[in-house]
User: Fold this.
Amino acid sequence: MEEQLKEKLFKNDKTGWEGMDIEEKDVIYRFSQGYMDFLNRAKTEREFIARAKEHADSKGFRDIATVEKLNPGDKVYYVNRDKSMYLAVIGEESLEKGINIVGAHVDSPRLDLKPNPLYEDGGFAYLKTHYYGGIKKYQWTTIPLSIHGVIVKTNGERVFINIGEAENDPIFTITDLLPHLAQEQMQKKLKDGINGEDLNLLAGSIPYGDGDKKIPESVKLNILSILNTKYGITEQDLTSAELELVPAFKARTLGFDGSMVAAYGQDDKVCAYTSFAAMMELEKVRKTAVCILSDKEEIGSMGNTGMESHVFDYFISELLNKSGINKPNLLEKLFCYSKMLSADVDAGFDPIYASVSDKPNAGFLGKGMSLNKYTGARGKSGASDANAEFVGYIRHIMESNDIKYQVVELGKVDIGGGGTIAYILANKGADVIDCGVPLLSMHSPYEVTSKYDIYSAYRTYKAFWEAM
Ligand code: MN
Ligand code: MN
Assistant:
């Protein structure tokens, strides 16, 4: 009797794996393999956008600049400076009645090279770095790192760099002190253990020339000579470059049961990939479906490729223009009638660090999508707090499509906090809720997700766009 009542009244707390049949597991594992393959070819925002554009082209999406008139069913995109991208599938209903947006970000925490990175010390060549996003600095030493990015010459020529991913490529690393001599370092607070200014990449050790005469900075000279031969660049060319250091390891299946994925950059490429993959499968939709792949979220969404920029408004205005319905204030009206899933990762409950989570309100790996009604810190400061009506609407979509979800918070009250791009679209008037995949080791070089949640994300974003 009590058991039956419990079944009826308590919320379902099972993981998605329980009672799963072999076919479903197979679908989930295959989808996750596609995700891992994509991650290995898209470690930076530029690489993600380049792959996404290729894929969208092959699926019949067109650059909006090349389209004269938009009709229901048309598929278009706008690529913003090769670092962010917006895609749309035009719906049956007028844009005036609002659109359904899923917004993720494709930048991830990493180390960037400084404008003047190269120097020599003690017979080694080094590259100086400046970290990007919220990292624990000690995690980025003594791991293999690869260099990705672009160098732009004064004539506009772009040299694309990707060293450290291929099996025969060299990799790079940042050294750390041996424990034998680290007594002083080990007394420091964890956050001070490694100085930001000491995150210098080991990049070479052979002096230039035959060694006959001693030239100063001959190891640095040798590196520049190699770079000049290979890429036709000089030291000054490194000042107009975006070179990013990311972990050189591959995305891998984790665990004896193969249930999880370990990979760099899953914040937020797990939501970016799953929403993008869902968009590629859309055909007829009632409301226009829009997918945002944003840049610069990890440093506050500023700048012309970040979500705070007006480039997104420009894209939506172009949808209105080319649908032949634009008029004053229509853009504002459209946003007020729109709905959005802010597709970003959530902190997964980690039993080893259980003390930071309020267990009944924590997101668990394998229990499906994490919905965060609000984020922020302390007294919800800075939060975009979704309206209960909208949470109810999203719950309805999840439940009618049999998708598992958990409505949770990032951590215990007053223990920290965080934010996403949710507030930016909410400020424009849209209904927004954070809806993503729970993650372990967030912002580390090797983040962990559950394959069950990865596939749930894909299903959620697709169901949201296809809702009638
Ligand atoms: Mn994120
Ligand atoms: Mn993040």
Remarks:
- The CA atoms of residues 347 and 362 lie 8 Å apart.
- The chain has eleven helices and 22 strands.
